[in-house]
Amino acid sequence: MSAPNKSYDPVEVEALKPEEIERMRDEALAAFAAAGDLDALQEAKVAHTGGTSPLALANREIGALPPHAKAEAGKRVGQARGAVNKAFAARQTELEAERDARVLVEEAVDVTLPHDRVPAGARHPLTTMMERVADVFVSMGYEVAEGPEVEAEWFNFDALNFGPDHPARQMQDTFFVEGPTGDHGESGVVLRTHTSPVQARAMLDREPPVYIVCPGRVYRTDELDATHTPVFHQIELLAIDEGLTMADLKGTLDHMVQSLFGSDMKTRLRPNYFPFTEPSAEMDMLCYVCKGESVGNPDRPCRTCSSEGWIELGGCGMVNPRVLVACGVDPQKYSGFAFGFGIERMLMFRHNVEDMRDMVEGDVRFTRPFGMEI
Ligand code: PHE
Questions:
Q1: Is 343 found in the same domain as 215?
Q2: Where, by residue number, does Mg(2+) bind (predicted)?
Q3: Which of 62, 78, 106 is the last residue of a domain?
Q4: Given Cys at both, which of 151, 159, 266, 361 links 192, Cβ 3.0 to 4.6 Å?
């Protein structure tokens, strides 16, 4: 059994010399003071108070000291460790306060900043106008139907009773994507010149009765100017049922203009010709501004209808039985009516747009006054 080493002098244990302990303490305090954020402080804490830190190692040396030396060395190391822990806690409080203050500033929301720097988009007035018209018919039970814009010549013309030599087929009206091919003059492919081919598609697709409304884009080889555009929009209506007459057509047209322009509106029909309707008519609606009162009344001129009292809307008629047959509908049992008109024109007279080009150029200064309908 070995006796304690009475001659052991704690002063000679390098790590427990007072100036060493002070140095360790001061280094720890300096490291805490230098820590710029809580992460750095945490690192400094591990380095200066952790299990392998100089102070912890010094503390471990105490156990090996003779009893009389233990107390003093213990006190010295204990005081140093106490000072280090206190300094750590103080610096931690300080850095936490700094972080909280910074977060408050960085995450603050400035409620006075302008909120509309990126303006919300809205749909084009042509779209909203088309939907408004379509909605009138949807509320009457009609179904919205669509067809392709690149259309078989057969649907665009043949099925609709346009003869092979009809002038509308000529290049000066129609964009041909593919000419008629083969020796037998098979159907070519065109950009549809009207929404009427959807009538033919609808009749072939469904069993009568058929009630459809078809809004869509159509193409004609017109130059873009104030009153023409090669790409424009039409809305087409088709009703096929037993016993439909021209009176149903007239009532439907009246209902449409009343829904869109007011309850005192009406339409009138003027004879016209379309290959796919018989009889056919041009439809006019009462001028919704002067209600006809400008006619023969120089004191009350009307800009909207040029004092004519009526505004031309589009074409209509009873579906030609030849079209019914071409589309598989029995003309002995069913009859139908159809009409179609241009949306650009309606937008022009309804909102006094003088130049059609404004509608296609995409300048928001044109669309903004129509409001933000989404
Ligand atoms: N499709 C015709 C046009 O583009 C309009 C129309 C539609 C006429 C339906 C009669 C019936 O001019």
A1: yes
A2: 278
A3: 106
A4: 151
- Distance from C-alpha of 97 to C-alpha of 90, rounded to nearest angstrom: 11
Claim to verify: residue 86 and residue 154 sit in the same structural domain: no
Name the closest-CA residue to atom 8, ligand 1. Answer: 315
Query: 44 with 160, same domain?
Result: no
Could you tell me the CATH number of the domain that includes residue 185? 3.30.930.10
Q: Is 207 annotated as a binding residue?
A: no
Indicate if ligand 1 lies below 6 Å from the C-beta of 316: yes
Task: Check whether 8 has a pLDDT greater than 70.
Answer: no
Name which of 94-98, 134-138, 179-183, 261-265 the model is least confident about.
179-183
| Mean pLDDT, residues 307-311 taken together | 94
Q: How many domains does the chain have?
A: 2
Q: Which domain holds residue 81?
A: 14-106
Choose the residue to mutate in 155, 166, 196 for probing ligand 1, maximizing ligand atoms within 8 Å of C-beta: 196
CA of 212 to the centre of ligand 1 (A): 15
Query: For ligand 1, what atom is nearest to the CA of residue 194?
Result: 4
What is the value of pTM for the model shown? Answer: 0.69
Q: Give the total residue count for the chain.
A: 374
Q: For residue 215, with 0-12 CB atoms within 10 Å meaning exposed, 13-18 middle and 19 or more buried, which class applies? A: buried
The answer to whether residues 337 and 216 touch, using CB atoms and an 8 Å cutoff, is: no
pLDDT of residue 182: 52
β-bridge mates for residue 67, sequence order: none
User: Does 177 map to a domain?
Assistant: yes
Provide the 10 A C-beta neighbour count for residue 232.
Answer: 19
Q: Do β-strands 310-319 and 231-241 pair in parallel, antiparallel, or remain unpaired?
A: unpaired
